[in-house]
């Protein structure tokens, strides 16, 4: 029990957000008379929040380095507009248009990263200028009009599902994937525990490990069962899962990830330790540009149109997701999983408040209070630890 309490204290912010997500989900499940967790609505939750979750993955890296990016919504709109021109007006194959769009997103990120990393202009100013610049360019290239429709194959990025076969009323492949994921997760946890034992690290109790495995496996299979009760696994969920795995590995197991945390923790100390801080900052913004481009493509595919108003307030939702998920406003702290949890908190709140008929004015106010409480909680923990 003592080990479990220490683990909770050391990861209080992340675990508290998981508890908050569970509480908010149960609350709205009751208030909506069970509609929130119906298979159709759970699938809609994933589709509606996918582009924000993609942005949150990139944004949390920016925030960990101690910077901010206010331009991501405008960049997403700009890239979506260019994708519309390439696919609809120029009849470019959708896969080639996607590659070109991601490259253009990287160039946008490089443009902003140069000013932040090498010219030393504060990221707030650079990305605020970028927000205005790329919103203006979006309106110029679209001439104030929407471009539609996109090719069917492109639309499937946001609206398609993994091919499946039905047994009764369930998509059976989805159930099988849930079981396989559970077995893989158990194998990873057992392997990590053996490594910790081999190198003499402090181990959690066997009962605690079993309890953790039971809870996680139950959540995975229940989630897959809900998806299998509708149309199975959405294509966008596969993309999100791949991004979470890749970025979690980079941040936790790679040199680049350690350099990003070191830069955010103390830039001068990191520089003296041999970290090329300018280069790290530059590439973090390049990555953010790619993620903004991907988000713009996902949103355009879901909307089936490139519009001048696309991406409005995306940056605020991504920043809020990162902070709610445990990122520190002063940098050096944050996780990819935490950003996803923060995004889900925001998504469940948006969906739940809409289902109970709460007006957009109340929704905005409540989300603002939740963000303020999350950052206040972070500052409280820092003051307490110091």
From TrEMBL:
The chain crosses the membrane at residues 42-63, 94-117, 124-142, 170-188, 209-227, 233-250, 280-299, 319-345. Part of the binding-protein-dependent transport system for D-xylose. Probably responsible for the translocation of the substrate across the membrane. It is found in: Cell membrane. This is Xylose transport system permease protein XylH. Keywords: Cell inner membrane, Cell membrane, Membrane, Sugar transport, Transmembrane, Transmembrane helix, Transport. It is a multi-pass membrane protein. InterPro entries: ABC_transp_permease. Pfam families: BPD_transp_2 (PF02653). Coiled coil: none annotated.
């Amino acid at each position: 029990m003592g080990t479990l309490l220490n683990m909770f204290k050391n990861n209080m912010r992340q675990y508290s957000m998981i508890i908050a997500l569970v509480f908010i989900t149960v609350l709205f499940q009751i208030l909506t008379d069970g509609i929130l967790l119906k298979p159709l609505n759970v699938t809609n939750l994933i589709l509606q929040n996918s582009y924000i979750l993609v942005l949150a993955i990139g944004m949390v890296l920016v925030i960990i380095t101690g910077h901010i990016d206010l331009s991501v919504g405008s960049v997403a709109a700009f890239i979506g507009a260019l994708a519309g021109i390439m696919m609809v007006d120029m009849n470019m194959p959708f896969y080639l248009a996607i590659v070109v769009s991601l490259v253009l997103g990287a160039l946008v990120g490089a443009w902003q990263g140069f000013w932040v990393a090498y010219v030393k202009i504060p990221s707030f100013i650079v990305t605020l200028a970028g927000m205005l610049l790329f919103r203006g360019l979006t309106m110029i290239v679209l001439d104030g009009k929407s471009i539609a429709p996109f090719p069917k194959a492109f639309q499937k990025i946001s609206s398609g599902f993994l091919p499946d076969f039905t047994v009764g009323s369930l998509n059976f492949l989805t159930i099988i994937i849930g079981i396989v994921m559970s077995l893989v997760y158990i194998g990873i946890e057992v392997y990590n525990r053996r490594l910790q034992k081999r190198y003499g690290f402090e181990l959690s109790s066997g009962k605690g490990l079993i309890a953790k495995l039971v809870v996680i496996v139950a959540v995975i299979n229940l989630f897959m069962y809900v998806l299998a009760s509708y149309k199975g696994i959405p294509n966008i969920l596969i993309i999100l899962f791949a991004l979470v795995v890749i970025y979690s590995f980079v941040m936790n197991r790679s040199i680049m990830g350690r350099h990003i945390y070191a830069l955010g923790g103390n830039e001068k100390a990191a520089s003296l330790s041999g970290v090329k801080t300018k280069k790290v900052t530059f590439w973090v913004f390049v990555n953010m540009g790619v993620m903004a481009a991907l988000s713009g493509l996902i949103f355009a595919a879901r909307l089936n149109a490139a519009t001048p108003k696309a991406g409005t307030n995306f940056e605020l939702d991504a920043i809020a997701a990162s902070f709610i998920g445990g990122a520190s406003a002063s940098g050096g702290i944050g996780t990819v999983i935490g950003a996803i949890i923060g995004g889900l908190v925001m998504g469940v709140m948006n969906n739940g408040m809409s289902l109970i008929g709460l007006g957009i004015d109340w929704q905005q106010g409540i989300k603002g209070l939740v963000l303020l409480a999350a950052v206040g909680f972070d500052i409280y923990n820092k003051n307490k630890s110091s």
